[in-house]
Design goal:
about 550 residues; alpha/beta; Alkaline Phosphatase, subunit A; 2 domains; two-stranded antiparallel ribbon; 9 strands; about 45% helix
Length: about 550
Amino acid sequence: MAVALHSKPPLYAWRKMTPFLLALGFAVLIYIFEETVFLHPQSFFLTIVQDRGTANCLAGYLTTFLSFCFLAGFFWLSLRVRRRFRLIFLLIFALAVLVEFGYWKAFHRPFSSIDLQTAMASPPGLWRDALGLFFNPLAALPIAAYAVFLFLPGQMQGPRPLWIAAGLAACLAGNAALHLNGLTTNWGVSLPQFYKTVFEWALSDAQPGQRESLPEIAVPAPGNNIILIIDESIRSDHLSLNGYERPTTPFLEALAERSGLVYNWGEAASGGTCSPISNALIISGVRPSHENKNSAAANAQRLPTIFHYAHAMGYKTFYIDGQTDYLWNGLTANDLAVVDEWLNTRQFGSDEQVDLRAAEWMRAQVSETTGSFIVLNKKGVHFLYETSYPPEEAVWGPVPTDYREQPELVRNVYDNGVLYNVDVFFERLLADGDALLENTVIIYTSDHGETLFEDGVDWLHCNYTHMEAAVPLLVIGRLAQPPDTSYPASHGNLLPTALDLMGVPESAFASQYAPSLLRAAQQDATRRMYFSGDGSVMDFD
């Protein structure tokens, strides 16, 4: 008599397939939802990648597929673990969605490693002020849907969780390999996009590059003082010194007319539209270009900073930070070896008076001696703009209650900030008249500009528009001969200008820098570029 072979019932096989099909279906729904909410980013990517050559086209399609597999695998894995562990998956998913949806709302682009660096450097007060700008209520929908999805009955059957986790790792490894080889990659929707950014930031910042050493420079003791002022969020076309209709810089205009010691390049190009990359480029002299897109950050950590040159030339070096009490602008702890004094918000406070206190300290430092080199990162006119000046100092009103809904009122509070934190700042710094300028040269710029919510834009900076990259650039002091201010200047000119003022011989230069503003003429003009918030190189001119 034949013995029937035992086989698994069809229902068993279906139960094994159920979590996979549920995960697959939920991943499709997430893609459709984000594609609709964010105006088709995946479709747009797949369209533009077709024009980038065969290798980039294939990489774009492959990474899009791997990103989708990662998302579906993540959901599948979350159904294969015990119920008590599923909250971890929900938190991982919710964090990515909240951040990515917030940045799509604020900047209409994904979260980038530059954004993460900026956020890490921002004081808690700025996080609080920015919540209304960044919070996107649409994020609640996928988070709530995933919470319901997660708490389906029991631990579902299927492959061992370890096998699924290995598949997730393979998807990430494939995308990372193509990304690191410089090919065009697509990391997909919020979950993989966010954690790709986090790992990218961690890897890029975990091991700061070793600075190249400078040769010994035998020079006499410095005979001047040099102050480099890097303001915060000041747009060049909102200075009346540059023709703006409101009198936002009356002191500077009077100084220029009276003394002839203000040299103004008008609208200059910033190195980037986000503070960390912009500041790092300023102090290292690295210029954005399409050729160095992938190496600019490494070069900014590798090349000697402006402090290294000043220290080598015998200056006493000071770094003043009016925004934080920790390093954030391209300096590392190792760089403090060439900074004689680091002063910050612990010494100067963090209210709207911090820049004025710094101005008074600098005036006292350089008034009667030479040999000081000072870099000041001002608090400036950061969002919310009405917090950058005392209420009694307001000239223009009313104050907007909602920046997005009342863009026509934004310039009122911004201009009040410029008048107080630029013009009054210089009035305090030069309170002794022109005497300070007998032995001191001041270089002034801003890290980036602002959108002021004009032309339908609803983000602040850290994106790609011209007005976010348009910054003022002044040199104030007695120079050997008047410079050519018709030269189209950029942040790349600042370090070589400071080296010129220090008397650093070109033989000691660690790199081929842009021309010094003291020597550049209009015919020396080159193409100006800047980094947008997502790391793309944009043309300024």
